[in-house]
From TrEMBL:
This is YqaJ viral recombinase domain-containing protein. Residues 128-263 form the YqaJ viral recombinase domain. InterPro entries: NF-kappa-B_Signaling_Reg, PDDEXK-like_dom_sf, Restrct_endonuc-II-like, YqaJ_viral_recombinase. Signal peptide: none annotated.
């Protein structure tokens, strides 16, 4: 039995809608907070709770059953009002999963993709590339503009710094950033395989009309036959935090800026966690065995069945009944191999080659031999055997309401940066703290972690003979103290690389449809029975 009548429910729905509208329109920047939705619901519930208390003459004091029933009914009303706001005013911050919301307009999307492909791109990590990035705001750390005066000051100081490409010369193979870069291609391969699509890279894209904004999306779906055609993808490889499917503040801002710059409305936020086997033996031992795991048909578990063709499984059955050890672990998780090389540059740089998904052991050995021959000019370091432990993919929509309020702040920020570059920015320098220890200047990197490969020594020792190079590398590992990276100097080295940015208000603020007249809102909230 409902305690709130139909008439009271309609009135509460209208009131909830107006409160939601007023709260969000007062400060749309609240959207950046991970628990934005829960905060709004809680605020509205508190306000409407007082109204209910008056209607029921203090019913909240009569007992838990009455109180809980009223709270549950009120929560449903508020959630309906939130749906109306998300449908007509601005979208949900993020969904709990990824799905096809609306199929793409192929011709319209082809035009957008072709435009993005036509933009000239400097070669990544070249002087021209760094010069271009210096002339604009990118989104890897632009979230700082919206947090506090302190973080905004830090961002201004970072962007005023003259270009110093030397700080990017050395690479820490143990830093979280490097881990993310190393596994990004693996994450994309898994995404392509799962959703039967194709991802293309577009580099650092300048905004069409706003000169100080640019974005570097991790990729865009470019397979025209896919229902995800034109959808962006943002990849985060998690090292030591929980994956809850809710984009962190900085990641959500990052995606909004990417979508605005590229004039796209959808982005899949992909989070993955990988672990590495200690040895080849451990990798091979953790293999799905169709006999010992009790599958008489010689088929892997349902999550693994797309890994190989029926012909491959028939061949495997004839060879003793084992499922491909290079495809899935015993628990059905994806696993695979990458090869780590170092270039012979000075300083040397890591380079990774990734075995295609779905290879059998025989197929991998063939690929490995061809790959080693192809990269004879590099130094083979080791094979890395990985396993996918966790994967989350949620849909994030472009939020024009939020961006319309963010743009003036970014314009003001860039004006300040241009002013300080000419008139001086020393007053923005962070206060230096005394450090108890300093890393040696001879350390090969200044990133996070303790263990680094001294590849220069490997080169000097003459590692042309790639056989067993790993032995000499292991002997060349040096233990260094943890280094605290100075965010003022190294911030772009630390934040997971996605150098995203901002805007494409080519749709104009008129199309944003942010400000709804009070009468229009009442019209929406009186017609939500079908929502």
């Amino acid at each position: 039995m409902k305690m709130i009548s139909a008439d009271d429910s309609k009135e509460l729905l209208e009131n909830a809608g107006m409160l939601i509208h007023d709260l969000i329109m007062k400060d749309p920047m609240m959207y950046i907070q991970p628990h934005f939705h829960d905060y709004i619901v809680d605020q509205v519930a508190q306000l409407l709770g007082k109204q209910l208390d008056q209607v029921f003459f203090g019913a909240f004091t009569y007992g838990d059953i009455v109180k809980n029933t009223l709270c549950d009914e009120l929560d449903l009303i508020i959630q309906r009002a939130m749906k109306v706001f998300y449908r007509y005013i601005a979208p949900l911050r993020s969904y709990s999963s990824t799905f096809i919301r609306v199929k793409p307009n192929i011709e319209l999307m082809k035009g957008k993709i072709n435009y993005l492909k036509s933009i000239p791109q400097p070669v990544q990590r070249t002087t021209e590339w760094y010069n271009f990035r210096w002339t604009c705001l990118t989104a890897s750390n632009i979230w700082k503009a919206f947090i506090s005066d302190s973080t905004k000051n830090q961002l201004i100081y970072e962007k005023c710094q003259p270009i110093d490409t030397n700080k990017f010369s050395f690479v820490s193979t143990e830093s979280p950033m490097h881990w993310g870069n190393k596994y990004e291609p693996v994450s994309i391969m898994l995404y392509e395989r799962k959703y039967k699509t194709q991802i293309s890279d577009f580099g650092c894209i300048p905004h069409k009309t706003i000169s100080f904004l640019a974005a570097s999306p991790d990729g865009i779906n470019t397979l025209e036959s896919s229902d995800r055609f034109g959808r962006m993808i943002e990849v985060k490889n998690i090292v030591n935090r929980d994956i809850d499917g809710i984009p962190k503040m900085e990641y959500w801002v990052q995606m909004q800026l990417q979508m605005e710059v590229c004039n796209l409305n959808e982005c899949d936020f992909l989070e993955t966690r990988f672990t590495e086997y200690e040895s080849y033996d451990a990798f091979e031992a953790d293999s799905y065995d169709s006999i010992t795991d009790g599958i008489a048909s010689c088929r892997p578990p349902p999550t693994a069945r797309a890994a190989a063709t029926d012909e491959e499984f028939d061949r495997i059955r004839g060879q003793g009944g084992r499922a491909p050890s290079y495809i899935h672990a015993k628990d059905g998780s994806n696993k695979g191999v990458m090869i780590m090389y170092f270039t012979r540059d000075n300083p040397p740089k890591p380079h990774y080659e990734y075995a295609p998904m779905g290879l059998t052991k025989h197929g991998f050995e063939k690929w490995e031999n061809e790959n080693l021959k192809k990269h004879e000019h590099m130094i083979w370091i080791k094979n890395i055997y990985w396993k996918q432990d966790e994967m989350s993919c949620v849909l994030v929509l472009r939020n024009k309401l939020w961006f319309a309020h963010a743009l003036p702040q970014l314009q003001e920020l860039w004006t300040t940066i241009e002013h300080d570059r000419i008139n001086g920015f020393g007053h923005r320098a962070p206060n230096k703290k005394n450090r108890t220890s300093k890393s040696s200047e001879s350390d090969i990197t200044s990133g996070i972690g303790k263990c680094y490969i001294n590849i220069i020594d490997v080169i000097k020792e003459g590692a042309e003979d790639s056989v067993k190079v790993e032995d000499s590398v292991v002997n060349s590992i040096v233990e260094v103290e943890d280094t605290i990276v100075d965010t003022a100097d190294k911030v772009e080295d630390i934040i997971v690389e996605v150098e995203d940015s901002i805007v494409e208000v080519e749709d104009k603020v008129e199309d944003v449809k942010i400000i709804k007249p009070i009468q229009t809102l009442y019209h929406y909230f009186k017609k939500v029975d079908s929502v």
